[in-house]
Write a structure and sequence with these properties.
nine-stranded mixed β-sheet; Spore Coat Polysaccharide Biosynthesis Protein SpsA, Chain A; 11 strands
Length: 268
């Protein structure tokens, strides 16, 4: 039930709807200390962008990052076995400063993110999908949130439909409701690379609901979550999305993820 004085919002994910309680700053469910970071080591960010095909979209995505990126920000682009093997070479030619990785065959977003994170030199990982556009100031907000004590930071999303209509989605992290409903959406998310290492990365056995699974395991590792109460990315809807092509498979993966989390926590 909502607590007096707190604001409720409606959040939708994969067709599910839940009323969620908004808590500014790290929710009180998390009392553990953030992961230790040596004071003399800067929290350099690395933006990791996996993609499969989507030639035009990935160029626009990378461009949106480079326009906003601080001078010491690293960008890693991972080609997850695109049909056209020249895309990654054209990206490297157009943007010589970025790090490019090509997987010989399509393995799914979890594998691509793990490969990108493995080569990242930054101590903050910023995940971005190739159909996203980064908004001005998003990287700096992510850095400030992690520096302020968060281990996992996320923000609002502008969902741009194919007809051009834009809707702001406000994802919320609330542990009990998450286990009950699985309602948690992220566009951009930033987290400490040490946290990704602690939970053994993304689960490479699943191809959808990977963010939900990763967030649940980060929670179990004691991560401190924080939401930036403003949009960080534009999420462009299109026919090629997994959520559009395989809704049944996405729902089944989400059910398996939640069942696994309950078993790990000894819950019915």
């Amino acid at each position: 039930m909502p607590i007096a004085g707190e604001q409720c919002v409606v959040s939708k994910s994969g067709g599910a709807t839940a009323r969620l309680v908004r808590e500014e700053g790290p929710p009180r469910h998390y009392e553990s200390k953030p992961l230790a970071v040596p004071a003399d080591e800067p929290l350099r960010p690395t933006v990791v962008i996996p993609f499969h095909n989507r030639d035009e979209m990935v160029f626009e995505c990378v461009e949106s990052v480079l326009i906003d990126a601080p001078i010491d920000c690293e960008v890693v682009v991972v080609d997850d076995g695109s049909d056209d093997p020249t895309v990654i070479a054209r990206l490297q030619e157009a943007y010589p400063s970025i790090v490019c990785v090509r997987l010989p065959e399509n393995k799914g977003v979890s594998v691509a993110r793990n490969r990108g994170n493995a080569v990242a030199s930054g101590r903050i990982i910023i995940d971005l999908d190739s159909d996203d556009l980064l908004l001005d100031g998003a990287i700096q907000l992510a850095i400030e949130g992690i520096e302020d004590g968060a281990d996992y930071l996320y923000g609002d999303i502008i969902r741009r439909r194919e007809d051009g209509e834009e809707i702001v989605t406000r994802p919320e992290w609330e542990a009990n409701l998450l286990l009950q409903r699985g309602c948690f959406v992220t566009g951009l998310k930033a987290y400490r690379k040490a946290l990704w290492q602690r939970v053994d990365g993304f689960d490479e056995t699943i191809r959808s609901a990977v963010d939900l699974d990763f967030a649940l395991r980060c929670e179990e590792a004691g991560a401190v979550f924080k939401r930036v109460p403003e949009p960080l990315v534009v999420y462009r809807e299109h026919e090629g999305q997994i959520s559009q092509k395989d809704r049944a498979g996405q729902k089944e993966n989400a059910k398996q993820v939640l069942s696994s989390a309950r078993r790990r926590r000894s819950l019915v």
